[in-house]
Each structure stands twice: as structure tokens, then as C-alpha cells.
Amino acid sequence: MTILDKPASGGTAAGDRSAPEVRKLRRETGGANVFSHGFLVFWGALTVLPLLWMFLSSFKSDGEILSDPWGLPGALRFENWARAWTEAHIGQYFLNSAIVVAGSLSLTMLLGATAAYVFARYEFPGRQICYYLFVGGMMFPVFLALVPLFFVVRNAGLFGTWTGLMLVYAAYSLPFTVFFLTAFFRTLPTAVAEAALMDGCGHFRLFFRVMLPMARPGLISIAIFNFLSHWNQFILPQVLMQGDDSKWVLAQGLAALAVSQGYQGDYSGLFAGLTIATLPVLVVYIAFQRQIQAGLTAGQLK
Amino acid sequence: MRHGKYPLIVTFLVPPLLLYGIFVISPYLQAFQISTTDWLGYSAEADPVGLANFERLLDDGRVWNALKNNAWLLAVVPVLTIGLGLFFATMLAMGGRKGRAGVTGVRGTSVYRMVYFFPQVLSVVIIALLWREVYHPNSGLLNGALGAVGLPTPTWLGDPRTAFWCVLAVMVWSNVGFYVVLFGAAMSAIPRDIYEAVMLDGASRWTTLRKVTIPLLWDTVQVAWIYLAIAALDGFILIQQMTNGGPNFSSDVIGLRMYETAFGSENRFGYASAIGVVLFFLTLSVAVLALRAARRDRIEYS
To answer: What is the ipTM of this complex?
Structure first.
């Protein structure tokens, strides 16, 4: 029989102590669970309430939003969504964002994986310098580069183009991607690679046929991380995509919608726009939450 | 065995290096040079003025005011976020003590983790616009609730005394979930028997947290500290979208100051780059200081 040796317990005999101890412990557990659940539920509500409010408000009329912030919508006014989708061009911006992110993500993954593979697996002069040059980029605040970057992109004739955005997103994602994937490729067993080379497999085929498939978990992690950061980019498109609003990405479109909402008082349209922008990401997140959480924290724990 | 590796190294390394060199390294290098000129952007001439921009910075009240706000963010955001993150992660990982079976999580841990993580997958622009509406003096969620129970309804973002703290609260709100998941992942790597041992020794939850969990998580807390400190030195998107630095510069931050100087009405690119250089050295010293201060002996479990 195990007896919990609490310093506070008095000098009662060991035999008759065990029963009340167990009861006391159980009571402590119950009380503590109410305590912990209280805080947990409170923070959960704090997280969900604003989002739920945004969703419900997207169905309200402007009058309902102004007069009764906590009330439920009188009817499901999908016309708010339609207005945000067409008049505020949220649909167009959504598509633009998707195109830019598809391009930049592919580029980041291709260039990041190849560079990381070389750093992790091959010895060559200047390797250390190149690696630290890449990884050092993680430390720089993007603000410092903003002004010259504007001119670099403009001089390359890429100002206001999706190609420009894709290249810049990819360039600024490389430091963390290379850092993460180099560490990952190093963990893969060398024996497999050596066996493949022995069997006459070329270096290129080794990479595409053997190493890339083995690195899949790491690639997925970093792809999720980069997807979210590209999708949520704001400062880079704001600086590099001024002017032609038919090419704007979602974040810019929402910021512009918030400004025009200020003039027109179209609150329901703003809430509808925010909801349209939020829902797909949230749905994808809920579907793949485990992978996404694991992917995003894996990088930080390394 | 390693013959023929150079074609691969060159093909794999040159494209990423080129992209990175053009869009990341060269802008950073140019920024240092531009910061010593009086360049007004679109004009052709840029005369070298030495350190005049930096001298002017010393007398620029608005820059000092912005720096003061960044200092507040730096002092408050990491402490609050890490504190709350550790608190909730502990609750989730070991909130329930099931009799003598040891330490277990509360029921519904994965649901809490999923919900807390929501803000992390949302774009910062969406968070900023949503919270701007939550704080709305008339139709906002917050004042709707305060008004309903008869409490005074402040103007939050419209009041110089509260605007900055309202944005700070949103910064903490949007970050806590990520650190709950991050610390949770780190806690799950701590062997169970350590907790069973200290529980049998009669340690309270608080003692367990302070003497066992936090020391074992120290590496992760250190990483969190650096990430949050770098985020606190930025804060640009939230501030720009929620208050635009106002009212009366009460919520200004250094990133916004730089953006306004460069891309606002004046295009003072030379001066803006000088602000960027200061931000660069601040970020660098904070990262170095955080690494130094947090350095402790590494604890190995096995």
C-alpha cells in the first residue's frame, strides 16, 4: 500500500490515514478541475467570441450592427457576402492571393530544398560562409530592407507584378526554410544514400528519387509554415504592389475595404469580407490541425 | 564515390543564392549606404551627408516617442504572453491529477489547443480589423457588453490614454495560443515519471511548475522570448491598421515611423533608412541579450 507522504498531514497512524487521504485527494482533484476549466473556458471564449461575432455580424444589416452589437441577425443576409465578393472584389483578391502563394510556395520549396540538401550533404569550399549568409537572414528586420527593395524590384521591371511578389516572398522565406531543412536532411540516414550511389544512381536521381521522398515530413512542416506566412503577407505587397488594384492580394483588399467602409458606413460589408477571408483558412486549419500545429512548432523546437 | 558532385552543387545552389543575393542581401547592404545620404527617393540626387541623419534622430521627439512605445511592448508582451502560455499549457498538460495514477491533462485538451491556436492561422490584417470593430465605441462587442450592464463605455482606440494598451492586448491575444501549443509540445517530451516522483514527494502544483516544468522547458522559453521580442520591436501591421499611430502619436511605433517617413507624404528615404539601421541594431542587441540572459546549463532527460 502506498501512502502519500504529505508534510502537512498530522501524526495519525498510517493504517487509518489512507482512506481520508484518498478522499481528500479526490476532492482536491475535483476542485482543481473546476479551477483549471474555469480559466481554460474563459480564454477559449475570449478567442472564439470575436470570431463568432464577426461571422454573425456578416449577416446583419448596418442598422442591427450599430444598434445592437450582441444581438443575433434578424435574417441571413447573404447579400452582404455577395456585395463584399463582387463590389469590394474580395473574390478577385482571394484568387490573386492564391495565385501568388502557389507560385511563391513552389519556388520556396524547390530552392529551399535544393540549397538545404547541398548544405546538409556535400562538402565544398565556402560551404560554411554560404550557409551562414542564408541563415543570418532570419535575424534581419524586413523594415530595414524595405526602401532599397522597393527600388531593386522597380529597376528589375517587376514593380506591381505577381512575379515580383513571388520572387520576393520566396527570397525572404529562404533563410528559415534552408535552416529548417538543412537540419532535417542531416537527420536522414547516410547508409541509404551511399547504397544508392553504389548501385550507380546519379547525384540528381539520388536527390529526387531517394532523398526528397524520405524528407517528406520535414517538407510538409515547412510548407505549412511558409504557406501561412505567404498568405498573410502584408507589408511586402503594400510596398511592392501599389497602384493597380486589380492585382492586389487579399490583405491589401481587406485594408482598402476597411478604409472605404469608414467613408460609407458599410459595416456589414466589412464583416462579410473579413468572414470570407477567414473561413477557408479556418476550415483547412480545423481539418489538418494536428499537422499544422506540429508543423509550426517543430521549427521552433529545433 | 563523390565524383560528379559539382554539377549538382552548382545547379542546386546558384539559383537560390542569386535570388537571395538580389532581393535580400543587396537591399540590406544598400540600406546602410542610403542611411548616410539625404536622398529624397524619386529625385536623382543623393548627397552623402555622413552621420547627419543619425544626429537628427537624436533630436527627433517622434522617434523617441515611438521607441518608448516599443520599449513598453518589449517589456510587457513577452512576459504576459509567455506567462499565459505557460499557465494554460500547464493546465492542459497536467491540470487533472487522477488520484495516484499521476499527472494527466484535463478533458478536451485537444479541443482547447485547437481553439487557442485560431488567431495564429489568421492574417494579422484580419485580426487588426476585427479588433478595431470589437473596440468600436458605439457598435463594438466590448462596449456593447459594458453598456448592457451599466458600466461606462470608453472610446478605447480613440483615447490617447488607452489606445496603445488596447493594441498591446490584441498582440498578446493573438500570440498566446501559439505558445500554449509550443510549450505543450515541449512538456509532452518530459518523462512522466519525473512528475509521478515529485507528486509522491507531496509537491504542490505551483512548486512542480516552478521547480520542475519551467527549468525543463527553459530552452523553449528562451526561443519564445526571442521570437516575442522581435515581434514586439515590429508591431507595425496591428498599429497601422488599428490606430495608425494615433491618437496624437500615442500608439506610434518605430516601424510605422519608418514606413511613414519613407512612403508617407515626404519620401525621405535617407532618413527612413537611418531609422531602419537603428531598428536593425536594436533587434540584434535584443536577440543577443536574450540569448545571453537566458543561457543556462542544458538539461538532458535520459
So the answer is: 0.84
Per-residue pLDDT of chain B (302 residues; tens, 9 = 90+): 456 788 888 889 999 999 999 999 999 998 888 888 888 766 667 778 878 888 888 888 889 999 999 999 999 999 999 999 998 998 887 765 554 445 666 777 888 889 999 998 898 999 999 999 999 888 888 888 888 888 888 888 888 889 999 999 999 999 999 999 999 888 888 888 888 888 788 877 778 888 888 888 888 888 888 888 888 888 888 999 999 887 888 889 998 998 888 888 778 888 888 998 988 888 888 878 877 776 655 555 54
- How many residue pairs bridge chain A and chain B with CB atoms within 8 Å of each other? 289
The single-letter DSSP state of residue B104 is E
Q: How do the residues of chain A divide into helix, strand and coil, expressed in percent and rounded to 5?
A: 80, 0, 20
Interface probe for A, chosen from B12, B132, B254 (most Cβ of A below 10 Å), is: B12
Copy the grid coordinates of residue A8: 502537512
The C-alpha atoms of residue A205 and residue A207 are separated, in whole angstroms, by 5
Distance between CA atoms of B291 and B68, rounded to whole angstroms? 23
- For the whole model, what pTM was predicted? 0.85
Of the candidates A54, A124, A147, the beta carbon closest to that of B9 is on A124
Residues of A in contact with B96 (CB under 8 A): 29, 32-33, 36
Q: How far is B244 from chain A (nearest CA, A)?
A: 12
Closest residue in B to A276 (Cα) is B126
Sign of the torsion angle spanned by Cα atoms B182, B187, B190, B192: negative
